[in-house]
Amino acid sequence: MSAPASPAVSLASDEQRPDGWLRPHSKDMSDAWQLALECAGDGAWDWNIIAGTFFSGPHFKAMLGYAEDEFSSSYDEVLAQVHPDDLPRLRSALAAYFERAERPFGCDLRVRNRDGEYMWMQIRGRLVERDAEGRPLRMVGTQRDISQARQAETALQEQLAETVRLNHQLEGAQVQLVQSEKLAAIGQLAAGVAHEMNTPIGFVSSNFTSLERYVGQLFAVLEAYRSAAGDTPGCAQAEADYQAADIDFLRDDLPALLAETRDGLERVQRIVRDLKDFSRVGEQEWQFTDLHRGLDSTLNILRYELKHKAEVIREYGSLPEVWCVPSMLNQVFLNLLANAAQAIKTQGSITVRTGIEAGNILIRIIDTGSGIAPEHIARIFDPFFTTKPAGKGTGLGLSLAQDIVRQHRGRLFATTAYGQGSTFTIELPLSSLSPSATDTGEPS
Ligand SMILES: Nc1ncnc2c1ncn2[C@@H]1O[C@H](COP(=O)(O)OP(=O)(O)OP(=O)(O)O)[C@@H](O)[C@H]1O
Ligand SMILES: [Mg+2]
């Protein structure tokens, strides 16, 4: 046996077999070679490139489910068993190998077995002969079944992808939990503060009413005394004091002062009431509620934010009472209305439209703001997606809102015309708006 000259081995001394195959150096060598390969679990092949014939060993055939006398020895027919998607890769790997033939040839591909199923095979080979012009003549090599390894790899990749997905989901859930707990805490705090303020505001207001009455009485009595005194001597000093204190001005100014104070007081009272109404103390539970009441209290909370920017148009249809957690839906309204207000640069309108369409309760928040850029639409519900400057938006408003609407078995979606405005629609199915639609009344 002569030592192979790398990269191609001259097999010039090999005798020609009747079937056209070049016999390896010796029969013993061929058997030993095949035995060694088969012990290693590999099948052997021998490809006569010029003749277009392809010899494969018994193990090669057995791997694909063929008996020893069954498999074709035509290269083209063997090639036809390779998965069409893998053919281009095989061809370019061969071309690259023939070009340089530095390292052994290798390619993983799918080969159809006798049952018509594709199996992953690892093909390794080496060019053993070239003609005088350097054209490849013959190549020998091995085939190894790597289906199981491939399957395991695919399963592992799927598992990895699933783990990544679950992690992502977990992260989102965690963020939303933190956010909604934060909001609930803020809501409770606001409700607590509102409750605490209620008592002092109550007595300030009631005292103020008395004060208004007393002041009126005092002025009336003062006037009576003053006219009774007339020009009575001895009262000159009293009159001088009256003039010095500019009581006439006080009397004119006081009603305006009192009215303004009363107005301020009423505003504080309203804010406290709105806060209490919005956070719906004691309404963190599932119950039937009037959504318009929730929309109104949310609009009240935002009154000062909206006042200079947007005209609020309420187009309320008639709605049944809805089975929901009111404080949670108010959170959704707040996020959508705040977004609408923030989308309006200088002046615009926000329409709140409600009604029933095709078995669904629809609540639409329609703004004439900036609209949403086409490249952003797919992402607006993603946690942390924001186009607002750092510190202004967390990007959690919509994802939280969507989560809450889903818990109510509904959908939240947006339509928009860039530069003209957006419409956010909350769709709640009428059919699920009763406790009987859920086992426990709890969101799933
Ligand atoms: N009505 C709207 N008009 C135009 N763009 C909107 C509107 N509502 C939401 N968006 C876009 O969707 C993004 C995400 O909204 P989301 O409410 O989730 O977060 P945010 O408002 O940026 O921050 P956060 O609500 O946490 O303060 C916004 O940054 C904005 O680009
Ligand atoms: Mg927002």
Give the helices and strands, then pairings.
Blueprint: H1 27-39, E1 42-48, E2 53-56, H2 58-63, H3 75-79, H4 87-100, E3 105-112, E4 118-130, E5 136-145, H5 147-229, H6 236-244, H7 247-279, E6 287-289, H8 291-301, H9 303-307, E7 310-315, E8 322-324, H10 326-343, E9 348-357, E10 360-367, H11 374-377, H12 397-407, E11 411-417, E12 421-429
Parallel strand pairs: 7-9
Antiparallel strand pairs: 1-2, 1-5, 3-4, 4-5, 6-8, 9-10, 10-12, 11-12
Helix pairs in contact: 5-7, 7-8, 8-10, 10-12
Bound molecules: adenosine-5'-triphosphate and magnesium ion.
Describe the structure.
The chain has 444 residues and is of the alpha+beta class. The chain folds into three domains: 27-145, Beta-Lactamase, CATH 3.30.450.20; 167-279, no CATH class; 284-444, Histidine kinase-like ATPase, C-terminal domain (Heat Shock Protein 90, 2-Layer Sandwich), CATH 3.30.565. The protein has twelve helices and twelve strands. The strands form three sheets. The chain has a five-stranded antiparallel beta sheet with strand order 2-1-5-4-3, sandwiched between helices. A five-stranded mixed beta sheet has the order 7-9-10-12-11. A two-stranded antiparallel sheet has the order 6-8. A hairpin with a 2-residue loop joins strand 9 and strand 10. The protein starts with 26 loop residues before the first helix and ends in a 15-residue tail after the last strand. The chain binds adenosine-5'-triphosphate (ATP) and magnesium ion. Residues 335, 338-339, 393, 397 line the site of magnesium ion (MG).
